[in-house]
Write a structure and sequence with these properties.
elongated, Tetracycline Repressor, domain 2, 10 helices, about 180 residues, about 75% helix
């Protein structure tokens, strides 16, 4: 049975996301991805050229941040925690980036770029001050990424065993403070 070009690319990307998420960037090989996709490694190279370009395609990620202007300002922190819990749990691409970002400079830069490009405008929208927005977005990202690392990658029992509501109760006020309150 012959596949279309789009179907083949989708199969390769799915295999790449799983492999990068499981093994990280450094340990993942084109041959391993090809074996997972049940295709020849030359097909992976044909569609993506090299491991770096395949990683870029596999880690293309939209945070899908909600429009915060329509939300009650005092609920922004809680709503963002809920949103990010959903994103971590539904899309493997962000897990690929997190796992790979701790060992690979290119993956770390990709993660920085995604969070800067997508979270910074949220901080500007909430604060109105572009000069402090990068710091606010960075602090919010530190909490979001730290939570994901501890809950989903390292699986620290005290964090992994928390209910969704507990995570929101603990982390929501911190994000709220970072994004909307005056600095101490």
């Amino acid at each position: 049975m012959r596949r279309t070009s789009d179907e083949t690319k989708a199969i390769i990307l799915a295999a790449a996301r799983e492999r990068f998420a499981r093994e990280g960037y450094e340990r993942t090989t084109i041959r391993g991805i090809a074996a997972d996709a049940r295709i020849d490694a030359s097909m992976v190279m044909r569609y993506f050229g090299n491991k770096e370009r395949l990683f870029t395609a596999a880690s293309d990620f939209d945070l899908k941040l909600p429009a915060l202007a329509d939300l009650p300002r005092e609920q922004v922190g809680r709503l963002l925690v809920e949103h990010f819990l959903d994103r971590w749990e539904e899309d493997e691409a962000l897990m690929v980036l997190l796992r790979s970002g701790v060992t690979n400079d290119d993956a770390a830069e990709r993660m920085r770029s995604i969070f800067a490009r997508q979270l910074w405008p949220v901080a500007v929208e909430l604060d109105g001050d572009a000069s402090s927005a990068a710091r606010r977005a960075g602090l919010a990202a530190s909490q979001i990424l730290g939570l994901a690392l501890c809950r989903y990658i390292l699986r620290l029992p005290s964090i992994a065993e928390m209910s969704r509501d507990e995570v929101v109760e603990w982390l929501g006020p911190t994000l709220q403070r970072y994004l909307t309150e005056e600095a101490a």
